[in-house]
Amino acid sequence: MSDPKPRVGFIGLGDQGAPIAQAIADGGYPLHVWARRPESLDVLEGHAFTVQPSIAELAAAVDIVGLCLREDADNLQVAVDGGLLANLRRGSVLVNHGTGLPQAARELARLAAPYSVEVVDAPVSGGHAVALARQLTTIAGGDARVVERLTPIFRTFSKEVIHVGPAGSGQYGKLFNNTLMMMNHQNVLEMMHLAQALELPIQPLLDVLRSGSASSFALQAIGPSITSANVHHLQPLELIDMQLFSGAVDALGDQAHEVIERAVGGARGLDELTAIVGA
Predict the structure, then answer these.
(1) pLDDT at residue 129 greater than cutoff 60
(2) Boundaries of each 3-hydroxyisobutyrate dehydrogenase-like NAD-binding domain copy (predicted)?
């Protein structure tokens, strides 16, 4: 008989976390969840899961815990103040699927070490629609053997699982990815300004750019994923990511300045870009 699948705990059932948790449950892993608000559990209707009444009781019931929370401070509150680390068994794994600072990922690993709990930072890329399709890219930082152990779970919601390096590397990978995408937003916006100045028809030009060698995810996403209906929700998130990126590369000083400025420009111009292309 094969070994039973590990029990997985999950905290953070938001836009990204909910479809990740659903996929884990549908993959046959015993799923245990805790939520601050009971109504948050509605997103798991139709999927097999066990509710735990407290963070401590969730920790005691599982082998692996996934967090998909908004900020690094939320992870620390759950892990330390909430009793997650203190109640996990030795050899358990704590996985952070949220986006945050590499420095915070390393600090979480340091805090977990006295409890003999492994920590992997594994942010995901792709957005809500891609999460629903279970086609995310999971970007993992941590011990290679631990990431290999987690990979079958990650594959329930991912098309790609990439081990980038030690603790904090997953966050670097995610932030570099997001920053380059925002720089590409700025590239597209500048090209659209030139097209407008020449009074070129925008839609046929977009068809050329999307199907030709100039294509990029940033360009393809305008319309299908980034629209006038959601752009004002996405813009603040992109600007938060740029604050994180700036903090992540702070040691480089002015070396990263031009990259940051261009990416911030792309995030700030996202609403204008959706208006130009009629998304």
Answers:
(1) yes
(2) 168-230
User: What are residue 103's phi and psi, to 5 degrees?
Assistant: -60, -40
**Among all residues, which ones are annotated catalytic?**
174
Q: Is residue 2 part of a domain?
A: no
Torsion angles phi and psi, residue 8, rounded to 5:
-115, 125
Taking 70 as the threshold, does the pLDDT of residue 78 lie above it? yes
At 25-62, the pLDDT tens digits run: 999 999 999 999 999 999 999 999 999 999 999 999 99
Q: Alpha helices, DSSP H only, in the chain?
A: 17-26, 55-61, 72-76, 84-87, 102-112, 127-132, 144-154, 169-197, 202-211, 217-221, 231-248, 257-268, 270-277
Q: Which domain holds residue 209?
A: 173-277
28 with 75, same domain: the answer is: yes
* Mean pLDDT for the stretch of residues 130-149: 97
Domain-terminating residue out of 115, 141, 166:
166
Q: Look at residues 166, 187, 222 and tell me which one is the last residue of a structural domain.
A: 166
